[in-house]
Write a structure and sequence with these properties.
heterodimer, A: alpha/beta, Rossmann fold, Arc Repressor Mutant, subunit A, five-stranded parallel sheet, 10 helices, 5 strands, disordered C terminus, B: alpha+beta, Beta-Lactamase, 4 domains, five-stranded antiparallel sheet, rod-shaped, disordered N terminus, nucleotide-binding (chain B), ATP-binding (chain B), His_kinase_dom (chain B)
């Protein structure tokens, strides 16, 4: 568990919300409870960490609607849905929209904590990935357009000779660019460079490079 | 006249024989004048002769007067004799031994005998066998009875061995009085031909007999009462009913069959006595007594009641109908004394309606089974919401319990005593949540388990509130608001709470589903109540509109296909595959079994609007 991670509970049923909050707090989690989707929307921030435990059935705005609203904002905390009776269409839709879990009440403490842990893990990984992407993107920004071109072609598996032919420059120059790229991207190997390029989608790379 | 006048004077005097009265008078005058003129001749002999002749003429004249007087008397006598003989009524005089002393022609004709041969004939020989005693008793009563006492007329049958022409009398009535004849008192009787009377009587009796035979052949129990409520006639079925051994005295109608027995009084008496019997019996009997009295007094044209009655082969249901009976037009009815002045009264008919009643009971059972099935079905439809509803408190309770456990198993064992105080609210909260779950289970169980209809007094508003509680989650899950506008505070009705709840569950859920399926923007089901009076319809027994309560369930859904209203209530034409639709015909059934009605508003442009109306319980009937 990360110090910053928090369990955000959105449930209109006071007893449900209160008991869950109490139990999770006793187990050492940071917990915030919200009585409605609107209340949560009003206070959530992009740097929230942790996971969301959402009641499926709520007046005014249902769990699914909240999920959609958050998605539109680009808010990407993992969501665990809680439902009294999860029928197949609702479940499918929730998962399609990116819910990490769908639990049916009553939920046992162990199952709940297990899923919260898993959600936290996903959250952590997403943060890490995001951080990595950010790093790659920062490093990419330092590359010259030529270096970018070389990197793209190299990660596509082309040899120096082929790149030279493609870019109509000498293989020697390619080699220099390549070394520069490896240095700037802090990549130890071509494989590592490939991973970085995969994290940073080619479109973005291209726009940053060619444009 | 002159010939007749001469006849009586025949042989009275040859000299003056041929002379008429004026002739004689003239002769007398002549003789007197001759006597006066004879002054000149003192002939004593001639004087004497003249005088004698004068006397003779005078005597003759007197004789003639007498003859005239006698003639008048004779004519008069003949006249009265004819009056006697030819009177339209027969007359006869009997001596104390019943022999005919005198008899007029009419009487002789009645007897079909020659009058001349009847003198001295003992009258009994002319009567049918067996009538002699009665006749002689009659005669001796007349002859030997006290003065001034009228002896009852005697009716006797005539002997019928001898063939007689058709219109000959068959029976006579003798109206007799005492008369003093040469040998002491005699019996003077007027003889009236009562054959026609007898025939009428017989045919009347035959008609009556036929009527009774028809009534006796009826399976229904028929009792005819006079205006005072006393028995005039009871048919065989009633007599069997009356003679049926009373295993228990239950059965609300008084039962006896003797003519003259006061039915009404017996009913009233029974109503006042019927203590230990079935409680309904007393009120029933009183109601019957009042109803029958009302018919007898013509305050009502008809009275109908149904009651249970113990018989040899078990419980039977009887339907009693009392209708007025008017003897008007029945002029020949002789027993005016019996039927009071007017001959009015009432007929009471009891029909065994056990079969119908049983069929009704079977129908009711079938309806209950169907209603129960519909409830099970409804719960199936509601199951999703129900599971959700139950899961909530159970989960909360589990978390509270778990939290308490965590508190106890807390890492630091030394902290336990201090933290024990924190346990209490957790456990209390867990307990409250478990209770909440338990209450849901209980409501549901009530709704499902209930199989037998129990009519009871119930207050409408709390019933509606409980219903909203039961399906509130079904609505809230679909984000439909339930709104209750009461116009029926403090109103009570008689009914089965679960069945009425079912009707409302059905109507409200239908509205919620309609709104949800059509994805309406406005999502609300309104339950409104108001008190009102039933419409007066001719077939209804209630005279004026009786107090009712109307419940209206309207939704903001897309409305109904009004053309399909008929199919709406058809058990086999359910619109919904999910099954709540079949609740509608059953709901209508339930409402009608409660004496109300359920209908849908034809103007359903703004959502569907269902109404049902139920009769109110009597005030104070709680």
């Amino acid at each position: 568990m990360d110090e910053n991670q928090c369990v955000y509970i959105v449930d209109d049923d006071e007893a449900m919300r209160e008991s869950m909050q109490l139990l999770l707090e006793m187990l050492g989690y940071r917990v915030q409870g919200f009585a409605s989707a609107k209340a949560f929307l009003g206070s959530c921030a992009d740097d929230d960490r942790g996971c969301l435990v959402l009641d499926m059935r709520m007046p005014e705005m249902t769990g699914l609607e909240l999920q959609q609203a958050l998605r539109q904002r680009g808010y990407d905390l993992p969501i665990i849905f809680l439902s009294g009776f999860g029928d197949v269409p609702t479940t499918v839709r929730a998962v399609q929209l990116g819910a990490v879990d769908f639990l049916e009440k009553p939920v046992s403490k162990s199952k709940l904590t297990e899923r919260i842990e898993r959600a936290f893990e996903i959250d952590r990984r997403r943060r890490d990935d995001a951080r990595a992407v950010e790093t790659v993107r920062t490093r990419c920004a330092t590359l010259t357009p030529r270096e970018q071109q070389v990197m793209t072609l190299a990660t596509q598996g082309l040899s120096n000779k082929d790149i030279a032919r493609e870019l109509e420059i000498s293989p020697r120059t390619v080699e220099t660019h390549r070394a520069k790229v490896m240095e700037k991207m802090e990549a130890d190997s071509l494989a590592m460079l490939c991973n970085m390029v995969a994290l940073c989608p080619p479109g973005e790379g291209e726009s940053a490079g060619v444009g | 006249m002159t010939d007749d006048a001469r006849a009586p004077g025949h042989g009275r005097g040859p000299v003056l024989n041929v002379l008429s009265k004026p002739e004689l008078a003239r002769r007398l005058d002549q003789l007197i004048s001759e006597l006066l003129d004879g002054g000149g001749a003192n002939d004593a002999t001639r004087d004497l002769l003249l005088e004698l002749q004068t006397h003779q003429v005078e005597l003759e004249l007197q004789g003639r007067e007498l003859a005239d007087a006698r003639h008048i008397l004779e004519v008069s006598r003949d006249h009265y004799a004819r009056l006697f003989d030819l009177a339209p009524v027969g007359f006869a005089v009997f001596d104390r031994r019943g022999r005919i002393r005198e008899i007029n022609l009419t009487a002789a004709q009645m007897l079909g005998r020659d009058r001349l041969r009847l003198g001295g004939t003992p009258f009994p020989v002319l009567l049918a066998g067996g009538e002699m005693r009665r006749f002689l008793d009659h005669v001796s009563a007349v002859v030997g009875g006290a003065d001034g006492v009228m002896v009852e007329p005697l009716e006797v049958d005539l002997e019928s061995r001898r063939p007689r022409p058709e219109p000959a009398p068959q029976a006579l009535r003798l109206v007799s009085s005492r008369r003093y004849g040469d040998d002491g008192p005699e019996c003077f009787s007027a003889l009236v031909d009562i054959t026609a009377e007898r025939r009428l009587e017989r045919s009347k009796r035959a008609t009556e007999h036929r009527a009774h035979a028809i009534l006796d052949a009826l399976p229904a129990e028929v009792l005819v009462l006079d205006a005072k409520g006393r028995v005039v006639f009871a048919n065989d079925a009633w007599q069997r009913f009356a003679n049926c051994p009373k295993r228990s005295t239950s059965g609300s109608s008084a039962r006896r069959a003797d003519v003259g027995w006061d039915y009404l009084a017996a009913c009233r008496d029974q109503a006042s006595r019927a203590e230990a019997e079935r409680p309904a019996s007393k009120a029933e009997t009183a109601a019957i007594a009042d109803g029958v009295a009302a018919v007898l007094e013509r305050r009502r044209q008809r009275f109908v009641a149904e009651f249970a009655c113990e018989r040899r082969d078990g419980e039977h249901w009887l339907a009693l109908t009392a209708a007025p009976l008017d003897a008007e037009g029945d002029a020949a009815k002789g027993d005016a004394a019996k039927g009071e002045e007017t001959g009015q009264g009432a007929v009471i008919v009891q029909i065994d309606v056990t079969d119908r009643k049983r069929a009704e009971q079977r129908t009711q059972i079938a309806r209950e089974v169907a209603a129960h099935a519909a409830r099970v079905n409804a719960v199936g439809v509601l199951a999703t919401s129900l599971v959700h509803e139950l899961a909530q408190p159970l989960n909360a309770a589990a978390f509270f319990g778990r939290a308490a456990l965590e508190q106890l198993q807390g890492a630091d064992a030394t902290q336990r005593p201090k933290d024990a105080a924190m346990l209490e609210p957790m456990i209390a909260k867990a307990d409250a949540q478990l209770e909440r779950a338990g209450a849901i289970v209980e409501r549901l169980r009530d709704f499902l388990r209930h199989k037998e209809v129990r009519m009871q007094s119930l207050e409408l508003d709390p019933l509606i509130e409980r219903t909203i509680e039961l399906i509130g989650w079904f609505a809230s899950q679909r984000q439909v608001e339930l709104r209750f506008t009461s116009g029926s505070a403090g109103l009570w009705l008689l009914g089965d709470p679960i069945q009425l709840e079912q009707v409302m569950v059905n109507l409200i859920c239908n509205g919620v589903q309609a709104i949800d399926e059509a994805e309406m923007a406005e999502r609300r089901v309104t339950i409104a109540t108001c008190s009102r009076r039933s419409e007066v319809s001719p077939e209804e027994k209630t005279d004026a509109g009786s107090p009712m309560v109307q419940v209206t369930v309207s939704d903001t859904g897309p409305g109904l296909d009004v053309e399909n209203e008929h199919a709406l209530f058809d058990l086999f034409a359910s619109r919904r595959s999910s099954g709540l639709g079949m609740g509608l015909p059953i709901s209508r059934d339930i409402v009608e079994a409660h004496g109300g009605k359920l209908w849908v508003d034809p103007s359903s442009s703004e959502g569907a609007r269902f109404h049902f109306m139920l009769p109110l319980a009597h005030s104070g009937d709680q």
